[in-house]
Amino acid sequence: MNNVVSARRIRGIGEYYFSKKLQQIDAIRKQGMEVLNLGIGSPDLPPHPSVIAEFNSAILENGAHQYQSYKGLPELRSAIANWYQRFFDCQLDPDREVLPLIGSKEGITHICMSLLDDGDSVLIPNPGYPAYETASKMAGADIIHYDLKEENQYQPDFDVLEEMDLTSVKIMWVNYPHMPTGSSGSHELFDKLIRFTRKNNIVLINDNPYAFILTDRPMSILSACSPDDHVLELNSLSKSHNMAGWRVGMLVGNQGLLETVLTFKSQVDSGQFKPMLKAAIKALTLDESWFGALNEVYLSRKHMVYKILDNLNCSYCTNSSGMFVWGKIPDTEVDAEHFSDMLLEEHKIFVPPGSIFGSNGKRYIRFSLCSPESVWNETLNRLNETR
Ligand SMILES: Cc1ncc(COP(=O)(O)O)c(C=O)c1O
Predict the structure, then answer these.
(1) Which residues form the Aminotransferase class I/classII large domain (predicted)?
(2) Alpha carbon of 298 to those of 16, 120, 153, 354: distances in Å?
(3) 384 Cα: distance to centroid of ligand 1 (angstroms)
């Protein structure tokens, strides 16, 4: 019998929703039925061929297999700084304001573990990416959700925020372009966030992995603040360069905060694989045409999702950004979990309920754009056959 008691920090943190759901999907597949998984945001398209070529040649170089620095290669930090200059109009010091990461998800945990103590509180968007909450809880902090509502275009209500007791709040997480709703950031919003967090002595962190996906133009919160502001931004090659499995991300911004995060990170990992870092440098040199081609594919898929949502009598907003479409279920349905279960049971189609991103998602479902056209056609066929 297993009598090992788990640590307090992970008690109450359930298994990640997708890992549980994938087991259920696997069980259905084992019964011989094909499930269309329209839920997971893992790009199905490949990275640029030059990125793969760079990886293949770098693997043969001397020293390719040795440990690397915790801060990645200096050339990678410079490539990140150049990328921020080119696309976001932000000036970054590659040695002091750039920290490469093993994906932005690891960065979320590192930030929480290095900045939060028991008794601190964290402002977390509802709905929002679940890792902000779990990482904050693992670090011992208390969660304060702030609402993002459709009627406010999923932007925070600053009057409500100002009314809150903020004395113990140390971090505010924001994520624009927002997952799961697709709401975009703006200079006005970033200015308000910076003023609010500056006034209340809160560290502001924008998680920005969807900066290039179906946006008018990429934006960084760092372009709206000064280097002394306690502002950080996470970014990632997972979605922008179809490199989710490679695990390359970055934390950029305030030098002092970055050093604190590095203190923790350097105790956890031993750097990344050098050929991968060199391939990431290559990816960061790609120009607008790469993003243009990528977005053409995503846009055409998005139109297929609109047809599916119409078929399901769901409503949706057509000016969203990012890799997902956020659909509102009909008023006649009980809630999104029932709706999602019905799609899986009756049609063998998996679309996650918005409730996994917070209580404000309970009347929504989230489609990922990471499936080829054939899957969208098959989805429509299945819905039409049974309706
Ligand atoms: C909002 C958000 N932040 C961070 C991540 C993690 O991305 P990465 O692959 O860089 O760890 C995801 C992944 O789906 C995400 O949706």
Answers:
(1) 34-373
(2) 26, 40, 22, 21
(3) 33
Signed CA dihedral, 21, 26, 28, 29: sign only: positive
Q: Tell whether ligand 1 has an atom less than 6 A from the beta carbon of residue 175.
A: yes
Q: Last residue of a domain, which of 283, 311, 329? A: 283
Which atom number of ligand 1 is nearest to the Cα of residue 175? Answer: 1
Q: Tell me the CATH number at 352.
A: 3.90.1150.10
pTM score: 0.95
235 Cβ below 6 A of ligand 1 = no
Mind listing the pLDDT tens digit of every residue in the chain (387 residues)? 566 888 888 887 877 677 778 888 999 989 999 999 999 899 999 999 999 999 999 999 999 999 999 999 999 999 999 999 999 999 999 999 999 999 999 999 999 999 999 999 999 999 999 999 999 999 999 999 999 999 999 999 999 999 999 999 999 999 999 999 999 999 999 999 999 999 999 999 999 999 999 998 999 999 999 999 999 999 999 999 999 999 999 999 999 999 999 999 999 999 999 999 999 999 999 999 999 999 999 999 999 999 999 999 999 999 999 999 999 999 999 999 999 999 999 999 999 999 999 999 999 999 999 999 999 999 999 999 866
Q: Which residue's C-alpha comes closest to atom 14 of ligand 1?
A: 41
Domain extent for 373: 14-46+288-385
Give 106 Cα–ligand 1 centroid separation in angstroms.
Answer: 9
Chain Cα centroid distance, residue 39: 14
